[in-house]
C-alpha cells in the first residue's frame, strides 16, 4: 500500500463505524497520512482497541440511529478536534437474511434506522460545521446491494439504495459550497460484518464478483481516501464502485 505522507495534514475527520472493518481501515490510512481522527461507533470496547490500533486522537461511543446522541457526538468531536473537514459514514448492519414475506419487522426498522436514517442524522449535524469553514468532504458507505439488490436482504438493499439517493441529493445541494458528497458501493469485503450472515449468503455474494475474490478493507480505504482528499475537486453527488467488476454501471 502506498502512503501519501502528509496528504491530510491539518485535516480533521470523523469516521463512523470506526471500530471495525472498512471504517477502521479508512481511519488508519487517514491518520497515517496526517489527519486527526475522531472514531464513532456503537461498540465501546472495540473503539478503545481501534483507537490503539489506528492512533486515533478521539473516540465517541454513539448509536448513529439516535439523533440526540449524534448531535452530542458531533459537539464532542468538534470540541476535541477544533474543526471537522472530513466525514466518512461507515457504520452499518446487515439485518436479517430472509425473504420479504418473512422479514422480521424489528430487523427492517433497525436496518433502515442505522444504515439510512443514521447517515441523515450524521450529515445533518456535520454539514453546518463544514459550511462554516467553506470546506468539506463526505463519503457515505452504501453497497452494491443498493444498486443490484441482493435476494433475502431487502432491508439492507433498500437502505443502501436510499444512501445512494440521499448522497445524490445532498451533493447537489452543496455543489457550490466547497463541500463534496459522494458514496461508495462496495461488493463483498473481508470484515466482521460477514459474521452476521449465513455462509451460503456470503458464498452467493462472492460468486457474483468477476475477480473471484472478496475485497480487502485497505482497497476500500484507498478509494475513500482519494474521495476525501483535496485532489477530489470535480466529483460530487456521485457513486463510486469498488466491487471487483460486479457492477459495471
Ligand atoms: N464488508 C462488506 O462486505 C460490505 C460490503 C458493502 C458495504 N459494506 C458497508 O460498509 C460499512 C462498514 O462495514 P464493515 O464491513 O466494515 O462492517 P463491520 O461490522 O466490520 O463494521 C461496522 C461497524 O459499524 C458499527 N455500528 C453498527 N451499528 C452501529 C450504530 N447503530 N451506531 C454506531 N456504530 C454502529 C459496528 O459496531 C461496527 O464497528 C457498512 O455500512 C456496510 O454496510 C460492507
Total tally of structural domains: 1
How many distinct helices? 8
The termini sit apart by 27 Å
Describe the biggest sheet? 7 strands, parallel
**Class of secondary structure makeup:** alpha/beta
CATH fourth-tier homologous superfamily: NAD(P)-binding Rossmann-like Domain
Low-confidence stretches: none
| Widest beta sheet: strand line-up | 3-2-1-4-5-6-7
Q: Which CATH-level-2 architecture?
A: 3-Layer(aba) Sandwich
The arrangement of helices and strands along the chain is: EHEHEHEHEHHEHHE
The share of residues in extended strands comes to 15-25%
Q: How does this structure look, described?
A:
The chain has helices spanning 21-32, 44-54, 67-81, 105-133, 145-148, 154-173, 199-207, 217-227; strands at 12-16, 36-41, 58-61, 86-89, 136-141, 179-186, 238-242. The two termini are 27 Å apart. With 249 residues, it is an alpha/beta fold. The protein is 45% helix and 15% strand. It is built from eight helices and seven strands, in the order βαβαβαβαβααβααβ. The relative contact order is 0.14. Nicotinamide-adenine-dinucleotide (NAD) is lined by residues 16-17, 19-23, 41-43, 46, 62-65, 90-93, 114, 118, 141, 143, 186, 188-189, 191-193.
Structure summarized in a few sentences:
The chain has 249 residues and is of the alpha/beta class. It has helices at residues 21-32, 44-54, 67-81, 105-133, 145-148, 154-173, 199-207, 217-227; strands at residues 12-16, 36-41, 58-61, 86-89, 136-141, 179-186, 238-242.
Lay out the secondary structure.
Layout: E1 12-16, H1 21-32, E2 36-41, H2 44-54, E3 58-61, H3 67-81, E4 86-89, H4 105-133, E5 136-141, H5 145-148, H6 154-173, E6 179-186, H7 199-207, H8 217-227, E7 238-242
Parallel strand pairs: 1-2, 1-4, 2-3, 4-5, 5-6, 6-7
Helix pairs in contact: 1-8, 3-4, 4-6
Nicotinamide-adenine-dinucleotide binds next to helix 1 and helix 4.
